[in-house]
Design goal:
This protein is an all-alpha fold and 254 residues long. It is built from 9 helices and no strands. The chain has 2 domains: 200 residues, no CATH class; 40 residues, no CATH class.
Length: 254
């Protein structure tokens, strides 16, 4: 099993922390450019844009953002959600590409360079949007084109900053077996540290950042080998197990 070295983990952690800061700033920029926080849409917005704006404002309220009587929609939770969704859209697309799993609807693997060309031909805003469209056929729970947040594009400047973070990562990182697990933990790490240092009561909003931690592969194997593995061995004495329980420990072990 290919796993990240400590140095590679440090590199990935630094990249993910930077990506969260860039993506959160980009999300605010994108939502404000779409007048989601304003009482009224911008005059130049067409009916389709106005409809998307309304759906985004509705989603903000579903996420817990208040709508005061002034009409200025709060978008703190919506901006966080967009930052998470947008970054992970392009990150997971990169993971799929690196593993030869980003597939055109015709059934052939495509690269991000090919996606860039196809986006121009098929009217998508950029290569990440068309990659997400392809991936939604395989992973509809992760890539959800119908979600209004997935229909928002970052400004070129914010998008390029995120692309540069991805391009700065070694391709091996995207093929390591444990990389995706670390990705989520590193996304939450700065928030987790801030919550722990604050000493504030941990409510439902803060709970994920401090409890959803990645379990390293050797820990998973130890738990499996000493639960399911121990159960199998105890019921089949003297018989060679069908798989190797490398981490299984017996009473006589010292």
């Amino acid at each position: 099993m290919a796993v990240l070295t400590q140095q590679q983990r440090n590199t990935l952690e630094s990249a993910i922390k930077q990506a969260r800061r860039v993506s959160e700033a980009g999300a605010w920029n994108a939502l404000m450019a779409f007048a989601v926080d304003n009482p009224e849409p911008f005059p130049h917005m067409n009916p389709e844009q106005r409809g998307l704006r309304n759906r985004l404002r509705s989603k903000a309220r579903l996420l817990g953002d208040e709508l005061p009587s002034s009409g200025y929609q709060k978008i703190d939770n919506l901006a966080y959600e967009l930052a998470y969704e947008y970054w992970h859209k392009i990150l997971f697309a990169k993971f799929l590409e690196a593993n030869g799993l980003l597939m055109h609807p015709d059934g052939v693997p495509v690269s991000m360079d090919e996606c860039e060309e196809l986006a121009k031909e098929e009217g998508y805003s950029d290569k990440w949007d068309i990659a997400a469209s392809f991936a939604s056929k395989m992973l509809p729970a992760i890539f959800r084109p119908e979600d209004p947040l997935m229909q928002i594009s970052f400004s070129p400047d914010d998008r390029i900053k995120l692309e540069e973070i991805l391009e700065g990562l070694d391709n091996y990182i995207f093929t390591a077996d444990d990389a995706l697990g670390w990705v989520y933990q590193f996304w939450q790490s700065e928030a987790k540290d801030a919550i722990n240092k604050s000493g504030d009561k941990i409510d439902g909003k803060k709970l994920p950042a401090v409890t959803q931690l990645f379990t390293e592969p050797y820990m998973v194997h130890f738990l499996i080998d000493n639960s399911i593995g121990a159960w199998w061995v105890s019921r089949n004495p003297g018989i060679k197990p069908p798989v190797k329980f490398e981490y299984l420990r017996f009473l006589e072990d010292k």
